[in-house]
Amino acid sequence: MILKKNNAKFITLEGIDGAGKSTHLNWLAERLRSQGKNVLVTREPGGTPLGEALRELLLHQAMNLETEALLMFAARREHLDKVIIPALREGTWVISDRFTDASFAYQGGGRGLDESKLKILEQWVQQDLQPDLTLLFDVTLEVSRQRLSANASLDRFEQEKQDFFQRVREAYLKRAAQFPERIRVIDSGRTLNEIQVDLEDIVSSI
Length: 206
Ligand code: TYD
Description:
Radius of gyration: 16 Å
Largest sheet: 5 strands, parallel
Order of helices and strands: EHEHHEHHEHHEH
Number of helices: 8
Number of strands: 5
Bound molecules: thymidine-5'-diphosphate
Shape: globular
């Protein structure tokens, strides 16, 4: 267990591509800052110079499924070591655009990598460190597709077919059912205002 100064929290945002999490991420960071908290916003894969270089490869270079999972966790190890853990130790709240649930959803659910392998990597890379709160922005595939098609250049994941995203979505919902204390599912097919009312509730409860 790492010592978090001033009760700082580690919050992660998840969802299939096109679920709209980036919009909510900025809102959430501003909301917490307005309460006087120091907030660091970061992302995965990425968040460090090495992690961002790995992100470039992961999003654009074809590779073996296990290589993909190993590189996601290699980037995560660096991210934890250089950014996330030091920030929490100094009392800064950390909001990460994706974390390990994405590996279970995309490499596990989407690509079909054995969950037991992901669990080994998870244990190796983060030991008992888990997010304090995970917001899972959930939308139907139809909504996700509409939002993605507005975006001209799609990366290696965004180019995947419907059934891939269906499996990713199901894997995310399965994680949420497994960890109901940590993962809050947010129906993101609704209007921005409706979603923010929910987020406001969640923020005030932490
Ligand atoms: P994303 O976070 O959606 O960034 P952007 O909004 O800029 O497109 O892109 C990251 C992609 O990486 C996303 O498609 C999911 C994928 N990913 C994994 O497959 N496994 C992981 O462990 C992580 C963190 C991300």
